[in-house]
Amino acid sequence: MSMADTDKQKTRTIDVVTGATSSLGIHLVRELLKRGDEVRVIVKENPKVAMDWRSLPPGCIPYIADITFKDRSDKEVITSACAGANNIFHLAAATYNYKYKYQEMIDTNVIGTENVIRAYLEANPKRDTVVQFMYTSSVTVYGYSRSGEELTEESEAMPTEGYSETKLMAEKVIQSFGTADQEIKYTIFRLGTLYGEGYESEFYKVFKMLKGKSPKYIGDARNHLTLVGVNDAAKVITLACDNPKSFNKIYNITDGIPYTQKDLFDKAAQFLGVQPPSKGLHSMIAKIGARMSGLNYDEFEFLVSDRVIKIDRAKKELGYRPSCSIDVEGKQMAKNFLKTS
């Protein structure tokens, strides 16, 4: 090995990614590997009993552990993964209100977040460099109904259910560690609802509704829905890496377009080659119909949510320029849906 190779190896950035087998995690790992980083991924399930790890790009290094420290070895494994880390990307979460009990969300989203930070501190007791802790939160921390407002990062958080409440709690945990230790820098991303590769199933349910008999809007369909392409979400997270402007900041991340429910339903109908709805259905009645169509609690609440999210800070400080388009991605998802339906 040459001297240049040795120096390169010594200075190689070490990244740790939790939630790496999620669709966003896979896209992020790809971006990090493109940078030439050493990418260590926390895999929750043992490869002997789960196949999720097979979706990960070649070149990353797996560490098998649960951030809730269910097993005695979990803490040791995550501590080992964090040794010498420059960046920690914390994506792991209990996401769905319909799926997880509140205590499970506390254990994963709040206590799990603290466990990861403490594992890093234990692994690196003598630190002479800054670590950047990057966390994927959610625009749901603002609540579901904020009609008439344009929400910035300074807008009041008003979580209304378990997922958004525990996401906000996790944000506070991270900020507390950042305040107590000047060598821990954090960046929090409040993401809109993701679309693109790996997020087709939720949209397929809407496609199925629109292809049904006499489809309806929910309410007057003028409520605003918040989306972001998964590729854009992964790329903006990497834009924050090693960027002092992003230290100890919160960023709203969407594709920047204030769609209405009507906009999206009409687009989807066009992609499918069917007539768009002509009438609206009262939300309470629609909720019953949604269950019959297979929509879960979280998916229905998204469709009736009303938020306009501003992304000016991410544009100005990170140079974020959304490049994904629901017109392109939605058309492809509709094409794939029609092939399988």
Task: Please give a quick description of this structure.
The chain is α/β, with parallel strands linked by helices.
* Beta-strand residue fraction: 15-25%
Under CATH, the topology of the largest domain can be stated as Rossmann fold
Envelope shape:
globular
Mean pLDDT: 91
Largest sheet: 7 strands, parallel
The CATH architecture of the largest domain comes to 3-Layer(aba) Sandwich
Description:
With 341 residues, the chain is an alpha/beta fold. The protein has two domains: 12-193 and 228-254, NAD(P)-binding Rossmann-like Domain (Rossmann fold), CATH 3.40.50.720; 200-224 and 258-309 and 320-336, no CATH class. Helices cover 43% and strands 16% of the residues. The protein has twelve helices and 13 strands. It has helices at 3-11, 23-34, 72-82, 102-123, 162-180, 200-211, 230-240, 261-272, 283-292, 297-304, 312-318, 326-340; strands at 14-18, 38-43, 61-64, 87-90, 131-138, 184-191, 193-195, 217-218, 224-225, 227-229, 249-253, 259-260, 280-281. The strands form four sheets. The chain has a seven-stranded parallel beta sheet with strand order 3-2-1-4-5-6-11, sandwiched between helices. Strand 4 (87-90), helix 4 (102-123) and strand 5 (131-138) form a beta-alpha-beta unit. The longest helix has 22 residues, at 102-123. The radius of gyration is 21 Å and the shape is globular.
Protein topology:
Elements: H1 3-11, E1 14-18, H2 23-34, E2 38-43, E3 61-64, H3 72-82, E4 87-90, H4 102-123, E5 131-138, H5 162-180, E6 184-191, E7 193-195, H6 200-211, E8 217-218, E9 224-225, E10 227-229, H7 230-240, E11 249-253, E12 259-260, H8 261-272, E13 280-281, H9 283-292, H10 297-304, H11 312-318, H12 326-340
Parallel strand pairs: 1-2, 1-4, 2-3, 4-5, 5-6, 6-11, 7-10, 8-13
Antiparallel strand pairs: 9-12
